[in-house]
Amino acid sequence: MATVPTAASILAELKKLGTASYKKVMLKHGVREPVHGVKISDLKLIQKRAGGTNHALAQELWDSGVYDAMYLAGLMADDTQMSKRDLQRWLDDGASCAALSEYSVAWVAAGSPDGWEVAQKWIGSKKEHEAAAGWNVLSGIVAMTPDEDLDLVAIRDLLARVKTTIGAAPNRAKYTMNGFVAAVSDLT
Predict the structure, then answer these.
(1) Given phi > 0 = left and psi -120 to 50 = alpha, else beta, which region is 22?
(2) Residue range 149-169: average pLDDT?
(3) Same domain? 68 vs 89
(4) Same domain (yes/no): 98, 136
(5) Which domain, by its residues, includes 52?
(6) CB neighbours of 74 closer than 8 A, spacing ≥ 6?
(7) Domain shared by 62 and 91, yes or no
(8) 80, 72, 132: which is closest to 108 by C-alpha?
């Protein structure tokens, strides 16, 4: 029987798997150090070897502060176990780059029982990374929820909010607001 990897063993493996060329690309796209430059396909192999969802391991990897490990944590986290406090902590820790705040954190939040509530809070934030993450959470919820279970009145209200606020929104928030509009375009 294979042994489940530990956070320490995964961090050591990530260091070996990273490449300078991929790291350079990641840094050009806003990722900040520490980063090893591990390809997502390699992260997914580690995720599979670790058994897919492993919430405790995901929390340890996130806490490492290493970009590659934090991205992997987003893949491994059990969304249903993420509390509002966990989600806020992950967002605050992942604020260093859009890849973490707008994607890893947003994916996990979209699957969380508190996803809708935290997204509503985040989209009203004056912090660009928080507002952008909130809109991506909403897009994720719309994508994962059967149409008949969506609150169309609330979605129409959010579309009206986009219409009246997008002009003054920071760039990353504008980008994710547009993504939300695209996500709901078939619903309205």
Answers:
(1) alpha
(2) 97
(3) no
(4) yes
(5) 1-77
(6) 58, 62, 100, 103, 104, 105, 107, 108
(7) no
(8) 80
Q: Do residues 175 and 140 share a domain?
A: yes
Tens of pLDDT, residue by residue over 64-108, are 999 999 999 999 999 999 999 999 999 999 888 999 999 999 999
Residues 6+ apart with CB under 8 A from 23: 35, 36, 37
Lowest mean pLDDT among 3-7, 40-44, 158-162: 3-7
Q: Quickly list DSSP for 2-17.
A: PPPPPHHHHHHHHHHH
> Residue 34 in contact with residue 100, Cβ under 8 Å?
no
Indicate if 100 and 39 belong to the same structural domain: no
- DSSP letters of 15-53? HHH--HHHHHHHHHTT--SS-----HHHHHHHHHHTTS-
Rg (CA), the chain: 17
pLDDT of residue 95: 87
Annotate 105-159 with DSSP letters as a single string: HHHHHHHSTTHHHHHHHHHT-SSHHHHHHHHHHHHHHHHHS-GGGS-HHHHHHHH
Distance between CA atoms of residues 85 and 100, nearest Å: 17
If asked whether residues 109 and 163 sit together in one domain, one would say yes
Closest C-alpha among 91, 93, 75, 97 to residue 137: 91
Residue labelled with tokens 């430059």? 37
**Single-letter amino acid, residue 3:** T
Number of domains the chain contains? 2
